[in-house]
TrEMBL record:
PANTHER family: FIBRONECTIN TYPE III DOMAIN-CONTAINING PROTEIN 7 (PTHR47135:SF1). InterPro entries: FN3_dom (IPR003961), FN3_sf (IPR036116), Ig-like_fold (IPR013783). This is Fibronectin type III domain-containing protein 7. It comes from Sciurus carolinensis (Eastern gray squirrel). Pfam families: fn3. Residues 3-90, 91-177, 178-263, 264-348, 349-434 form the Fibronectin type-III domain.
Length: 727
């Protein structure tokens, strides 16, 4: 079997820069054909089944030697006669952009073996005209295009023979125009700008730019409006809108100026000077046209101040907390809320300070609670003497003060926030007077008590009080002594003195004891016991412990000191005028001169008493009168009676008759006092009447002198055997 026939190439040509198309006559029996292209460096083979056939993978603008072989079941033929063919120029590689909304710039690199280029452009939708330009350059700009429109660009190169090479096609959209009719609205509360515009042709996206000297904000959208947030207060922004598509962005639109609200004023200074006037000052802020300061108290009261300056003044009250905020305003609106400052005014000062207790060294003051006060400081000042007390209660007791001293007492109110309110007014309070010091208590001859004291008070009245079981006695004086009378005797008193001024009473002085003289007995009795002894008796006097009785005359003195209520005084002389005095003495030695009276001692007992018998039933009693004139009385005391005989004036004897016989009698001759009282202390004689009558006695009566026992002897008469004796 023989190989198939050798094909004959009719023609070989290139329409695409990387291939050559070969045409030939069909060889009977051939089932396929082998095309070969050689450029001297490389050999490229391609199997095809029929004519025409194309060899690909070639280099552009290159001359190739083309041969073909037929292939059948019996084998492969010899290569045909070669045919030369040259690949066309390569297509230019385009770089397309839209530098402006109405132009497209087409650029490419030089194409091998090309001497010129053809570039055409038309809208991709087929509408409108086609622009075609030839150039030897490697770039070309098409202008006067529609903005934002998609164009199809086609370009190819040609060689010296004018044969066009491969064409290159791409689409390019012109960039959009800048959006127009930009509208900006501002939300001052959110610091947000809402920007809107008229949509522009061919824009895919829009970018809104807000530029200031210190910041940049933007937003992007596919719609015709956009919000820019987080803008800065007090800033002037230039708002512009860019439209963009796949070709790029438009130029910035004409900028719109946006002035945001002013920032909240800073460096807010709050002062209360003077009290009751609140001054609020702040720093000036950019873009602020005017300011409004709001002041609200914690009880809901609110005021505001509208000013173009940076300061406002308000009336304030003590003890309130004020909440202060300052806003700046411009055409954009109100500034954001800045810091809210609270200012607590000084607590109110107590105004009703009342001293409820004032003593010599202590003052208790109370007042009504005041608004804003958390603590009270009470200060009392008198020269260099300062006394303080702190308390949360509206009361204070100032102690350790000086007596009779005027203090400037001030109650300051304090709060933790504001401290002390130093504008509180003082009140003058004088402490109670100083206690006087009793230095002496004396008594005069009239038992009047004189009390002397020492004190340093000014304009004080002093009251001295003597208090005891018998009652209370007082005297008053503005000096340093007073006199007190009428105190009962025999009493013990405690004497104190107090001072009184307009501020009040002082504390009592230290007490001094006062003992009055003992009470004198209410009665005194003088009784003569014997001729030389008298008995002085008296009642008991209050507080008297002992008594002194003195009996005194021109011839001498007799004294008795006893704790009893009577006293015997001896060695007196009868018939003498005496002075009797009685003194009561207390346990402490106080003496009361109680009694002063005259006393005349009784006449002396008669001397030489003799008895003479006068018959059986009578007796004569004879005596010798004593010194001084006196009346006498004779008494016979017996079991059968008492027989009395009073002699006639001037006689010194007395006869007692008709006395019963047979009895024993006691005979006494006594002087009779002026009061008629007979003295019973004179000597007594005993007489017995048992003897019978002796007639001798009638003419010659027997006389017994019984002044001594020796003389009282029985006579020869048995009947006179009785013993006559002196007692």
């Amino acid at each position: 079997l023989s190989a198939p026939e050798i094909p004959t190439i009719d023609q070989a040509y290139s329409k695409i820069s990387n291939s050559i198309t070969v045409e030939w006559a069909t060889v009977p029996g051939a089932t396929s054909y082998l095309l070969t292209a050689e450029d001297g460096d490389t050999v490229i083979e391609t199997m095809v089944t029929n004519s025409p056939g194309t060899v690909t993978g070639l280099k552009a603008a290159t001359l190739y030697q083309i041969t073909i072989r037929s292939i059948s079941a019996t084998g492969r033929s010899q290569a045909s006669l070669p045919k030369q063919a040259k690949t066309v120029l390569a297509a230019p590689i385009l770089e397309v952009s839209s530098p402006s909304p109405d132009s497209i710039l087409v650029q490419w690199e030089a194409v091998y073996m090309a001497i010129g280029f053809s570039v055409s452009i038309m809208q991709a939708n087929g509408l409108g005209r086609i622009w075609k330009e030839n150039t030897t350059n490697t770039s070309l700009t098409f202008s006067s295009l529609n903005a934002g429109t998609l164009y199809t660009i086609k370009a190819y190169a040609w060689n010296t023979n004018g044969i066009p090479g491969d064409d290159s096609t791409c689409n390019q959209r012109t960039s959009p125009r800048a959006p127009a009719n930009i509208q900006v609205s501002f939300d001052s509360g959110a610091l947000k700008a809402f920007v809107s515009w008229t949509p522009t042709e061919g824009a895919f996206n829009y970018t809104v730019m807000a530029l200031s000297s210190s910041s940049e904000r933007s937003c992007s959208t596919t719609f015709s409006s956009c919000s820019i947030s987080s803008l800065q207060c007090g800033t002037e922004y230039l708002i512009s809108v860019l439209a963009s598509n796949d070709a790029g962005s438009s130029k910035s639109s004409s900028s719109v100026t946006l002035k945001t609200v002013a920032c909240a004023p800073g460096r807010v200074m709050i002062q209360e000077d003077p009290p009751g006037h609140l001054s609020v000052a702040w720093s000036n802020v950019d873009l602020g046209d005017y300011y409004v300061a709001f002041v609200k108290s914690d009880d809901g009261w609110e005021v505001h101040c509208n000013t173009s300056t940076t300061q406002c003044s308000f009336l304030s009250e003590c003890g309130f907390t004020y909440f202060i905020s300052v806003f700046a305003y411009n055409k954009a609106g109100q500034s954001p809320l800045g810091d809210v400052f609270n200012y607590t005014t000084a607590p109110c000062c107590p105004s009703d300070i009342n001293p409820v207790l004032v003593s010599s060294e202590r003052v208790e003051v109370v007042w009504s609670p005041v608004r804003g006060a958390e603590l009270y400081e009470t200060k009392a000042v008198a020269g260099s003497n300062v006394v303080e007390c702190n308390d949360t209660a509206p009361a204070c007791t100032l102690s350790a003060l000086e007596c009779d001293t005027t203090y400037s007492v001030t109650v300051y109110s304090l709060s933790e926030v504001r401290g002390i309110n130093t504008s509180c007014r003082s009140r003058f309070i004088t402490t109670g007077p100083c206690s006087p010091e009793i230095i002496n208590i004396s008594k005069d001859a009239f038992s009047t008590i004189h009390v002397h004291w020492r004190s340093t008070n000014d304009d004080a009245t002093y009251t001295v009080t003597a208090q005891g079981e018998k009652g209370l006695y007082q005297c008053s004086s503005t000096g340093e002594s007073c006199t007190m009378g009428g105190l009962p005797c025999g009493s013990v008193f405690s004497v104190t003195a107090v001072a009184e001024t307009q501020a009040g009473w002082s504390l009592p002085s230290y007490s001094m004891p006062l003992e009055t003289v003992p009470c004198c007995p209410t009665g005194m009795t003088v009784t003569q016991v014997t001729q030389s002894v008298i008995n002085v008796s008296w009642t008991i006097g209050m507080a008297a412990q002992t008594y002194v009785t003195v009996l005194e005359s021109h011839i001498g003195q007799s004294k008795c000191h006893t704790h009893q209520s009577h006293c015997l005084l001896g060695c007196i002389t009868c018939g003498i005028n005496y002075t009797v005095t009685l003194k009561a003495i207390s346990a402490t030695g106080l003496t009361a001169d109680c009694a002063y009276q005259s006393y005349s001692s009784n006449a002396c007992c008669p001397l030489g008493v003799k008895l003479y018998r006068l018959g059986p039933n009578g007796i004569r009693i004879y005596w010798q009168a004593s010194r001084g004139s006196a009346n006498y009385s004779t008494d016979l005391y017996g079991s059968k009676g008492i027989f009395t005989c009073t002699p006639s004036a001037g006689l010194s004897f007395c006869d007692v008759t008709e006395i019963p016989c047979g009895d024993v009698y006691t005979v006494m001759v006594s002087p009779v006092a002026e009061t008629g009282l007979k003295l019973t202390f004179c000597p007594k004689k005993i007489y017995s009447g048992k003897a019978s009558y002796d007639p001798l006695f009638k003419t010659n009566p027997q006389v017994w002198d019984c002044s001594s026992a020796a003389q009282c002897l029985p006579n020869t008469c048995e009947a006179l055997g009785s013993i006559l004796s002196s007692t």
